[in-house]
Amino acid sequence: MKLKHWIRIIIFAGLSIGLIALASFVMCVAYERDTVGMYGYYKEPDDSISVALIGPSTIYTSFYSPLAYEKYGFTSFNLSTSDMMGASYKSAVQLAESNQKPDLYVVETWGFTYKDQLEPVHLRRWIDAMKDSELRTQTIEELIPEEEWYHYKHPFIKYHSRWDDIGGCLKVFIDKLQQNRKGYSVTKNFYTYTDVNEYKEKKSKYKISEEGFKYLDIFLNYCKENGIENILFIRSPESITYEMDESYYEMLDIIEEAGYDFLDMQAASSEIGMDLNHDFYNPGHLNIFGAQKYTDYLSKYIVEHYDINTDYAPEVVKEWDDCASYNKKIFERLERLTDKKTNESLYIQRDFY
Amino acid sequence: MTLTSLSFFAFVFATLVLYYIIPKKFRWIVLLAASAAFYGIVCLKYMPFIVFTAISTWLGALWLDKVANQRKAELKEHKADWDSDTKKAYKHKTLVNKRLILALVLVLNFGILAVIKYFDYISEWLSGFLPVPAISLGILLPLGISFYTFQSMGYIVDVYWGKTAPEKNFAKFALFVSFFPQIIQGPIAIYDDLAKQLYEGHDLQYENIKNGFILILWGLFKKMVIADRLIVILNAILDNRPGLYNFFGAIAILVYAAQLYMDFSGGIDISRGVAQMLGINMAYNFKRPFFARTVADFWRRWHISLCHWLRTYLFYPIAVSKAFLRFGKWIGSHAKKKDLPADSVWGGFTFIEHAGRVVPGCIATLLTFLIVGMWHGANWKYAGYGLWNGIIILVSMLLDPVFKYVINKTKIRTQTFSWRLWQIFRTFVITMVGFAFDIGNDMADSARMVLDCLNPLGRAASVPAELNIGLKISDYAVIVVGLMIVFAVSLYQERSQKSFRDTLGKQSIWFQWVIMLGLLLGVVILGMYGPGVAANEFVYMNF
Amino acid sequence: MEEFIEKLKLIKKGVDFENETELFDGGFLDSFDVIQIITMLDEDYEITVPPSEIVPTNFNSAKAMFAMMQRLEDE
After folding, report:
1. What predicted TM-score, i.e. pTM, was given to this entire model?
2. Do C54 and B347 touch (CB under 8 A)?
3. Residue B437: per-residue pLDDT
């Protein structure tokens, strides 16, 4: 074998590995919205996030971080994926503790209502939104049965079959490139849907599941052991009329015993100014109108009740000032689309401005 | 560790590295170690079987050789002082001895194969009408037993015939028996073709690495992208029988044929590609079988190594045995001598003369194909499969002069494209009927499947409401495009009779890389693997 | 040799035995024809062709067959 043959082999090997790595980067998308949203988390500089919000879709549809910064001066980020369950909360705290150590955690209680706390499709969305790291591996080993580890630890084994949805994958890929170019996400893992739901009375039961209690305990124990001082559990407002099960009150007791706080935002609906006919895009989720009110109320509550350090490094201030500068433009646009009921799912940076 | 698993590729890579690092003289030892390791990893429990075959064959061959040498020496020594009667008696005695040794080895090894393969089925079948209980041996098939048994028995027959010198080194012989790229599903090699390549160390050659690698990719493409999708369709149809015959039965047969070919030839390609990367050229097992124009031609293109083996060690020995030659002569002796022109109905002979010439061969053919059928499994339907093919060939041999006569008289032009297409089509249909036997539950079921095809719209009420079988539209598109690609390559090979890889190798390196990367990405992205996809074993793995 | 070719022609009509060198590989002769030739060798020349000799190289041309015959006669 001549030298030129070895060179050819090496070049071919390089091309192969490169192309497969590229394919993997583009195609390993569990759920586009979650992948794009959480990608932004890793772009934030260390020790720059003051408040981390954890929970399923009620978090990322309701809380708009740049608005909180503009009005109340603190930085925040939604550690939130679709149908995120209580079992995932601990790893979210671990993630935030690893490089941010926020002053406050806001935790959505709805995550503990899921009966199957380890439901694979939803669990996967959170796990695959995590960057490959020791924490991710540890989370996989804690929550996933051993025979499935291989395709969690090497997601391409599962996601190579996404080739026929390459449009969705490319959308994510391009957004990641844009976030890279800008250096950070402007919308900080926010999602909205441009519709206004007509209120119809809908009844349901709010019940904490058995599994939910198990993972609540795990979560609280972890936080106490690791010296997490400030956690504000919240119940987000909805247009569904819930019958509160006694397990719900049990949960509140457990939270109180652990020394953490709780805010019932559903009870505070009128104080927040919730308009059941205008602020929701479906019975369970706020639209852009509702999100603005929610963000304002919750942020005010946070600064009034907690000592949030807003002494940020200059580059952090520069970044957040820039993000906040888009607020007016973004809200105007989203409000217009929502009133027109254009029924669009918006989560890509480009969608907003 | 199947041929499509990552662990297999890691294994092959390690073997390759070791092979080319070790000095040339000892490279065969690397192959032996790799083959032993492979067999141990996949099938440790049943390893004694292959060891037994290796030892018994090796010893038997040495013994035969000893007897043959002794015979030569004795005859030479007594050339002068023995009369021809003594010589003849001695020759006869040694021949009987040789036959006994050969028979011993054959019976032992084929016996083991037969018992393991057929005992359970025959026992169950007998218990159906005799007062004997059905016993199950509960033994699974040792890996590759059908292949390595045939391969070893071919070797000892070659030694018996004096065609091959026996291998004195047991380690080397064990390598021949167990060579890992072919242990799973062949091809069945002839000793003279393979052994030397195994034992002599090969230089690291760029062409071998590159072309071997491309062949592996091609095999993976056929198996993981096409065959593993087709099997989803096939299983969906077969799992819903018997309500789904007629139209779906025809679909099932076609899908089965495509799936079997992609699976089997894909696996063979991977094996041959691995061997090529080691500098070893293994025999072809497929040569674009669906382009065959006659059923006989089909069997020269499908599972070539098995048919070659059967032709060499079964068909010819039977057909040219004294008994059969006498039989043919006897038939012919009943013919009245007539002087017929070459273009008469039976091709210049009377019918009886013609029969005398072909009947012995026909019987040998029938027997051979019966074995081909039964080799596939323990079930009478497989015998049916073999007989179907055998009878078609037999009939075509018998009636061949008649066909030629009719073609002559009706002035059909046989050199045209349309005629060739007709031949390919009719061979295709006949072959498809044969395949129905593979997927039917038994003889009756298979026969029903075939007959139902004549009535495609019957029982339309049995069309399932649920057509979602786990494949998306994109998967069907992949199947179609994949088949088209394979067809295009096959067409090129058939028309040009050239190796596709050789032609590819002559293009610019960038073009080659595009094709190779395309294949690689095709396999990695489109391959059916991952959670939710059961790893599909190769069809011929359990033979 | 000519006599031999004449006999071959009786077995299979329409094949160019004088010149063709790919009789078996090229599909001009098939297994049944080979059996016929072996029968003929047995009847007319009293030569027994052992199965180990039944390989394409021995039957690809009249010359090859003739050489095989002579080899077998000598044994």
Report:
1. 0.89
2. no
3. 84
